[in-house]
Amino acid sequence: MKQKQQAAGPAAEGLDTVERSSLSNQAYQQIRKALMVGELKPGQKLNGREIALRLGTSLTPVREALLQMVAEGVLEFRAGQSITVPQPPRRVYAELRGIRVEVEGLAAERAAQRISAAGIDELAALHNELVRGKAEHDYGLALRCNEAFHLGIAREAGMPRLYRVVEGLWAQSGPFLNSLYNGPEGWPAGDDPHTHVLVMEALRRRDGAAARAAIVQDIVRGGAGLLSRLPE
Predict the structure, then answer these.
(1) For labelling alongside 219, which of 72, 93, 101, 187 has CA 20 to 30 A away?
(2) Which intervals hold domain HTH gntR-type (predicted)?
(3) Right CATH number for 90-229 from 1.10.3720.10, 3.30.530.20, 1.20.120.530, 3.40.640.10?
């Protein structure tokens, strides 16, 4: 019996470690998604206990996830050891936008070579939901669908490492997107036809260059009004 107890000890500890690591990763993914869709706003202080309660987990995995994001530069420490969503100046958003143009442009070009009809239909459904969200002033829905549309294109490129780069860029850019409708004018009018429609038309034609140009246009024009609302 004594030998069995000794053998069981390390196994139980190993399972505990795996479980905690899994919870930390789940918390990381949930918090990152909230950043990507603009649910968390620039300058917002993050309360680990509140997040843990919302996620239905203990504080430890949430704290580990937050610290990992601080190390990645997605979140930052402020005075008093509080963790906040960064509120960087205009030049930082401009830098992120410039990188997105290159990376998402490549993703769209590659996606045009391999995307299926079902994949295009999925993008079309996301865009339709985005349009509905804007029409009903449900900007949370619109932001979630916009993020899913862009990540959907990156996924269709069939380049897992590129996809992770796009995810990381959206985690840093997402909080800025609240400023798109944070004012009396609401969401900007945008283009007609919407640049998402131009992207999908290019994907249907298997025209990589046109798909790249359309997604670049979407990123640049979509953020044009945002730049003027950010601090220097």
Answers:
(1) 72
(2) 21-88
(3) 1.20.120.530
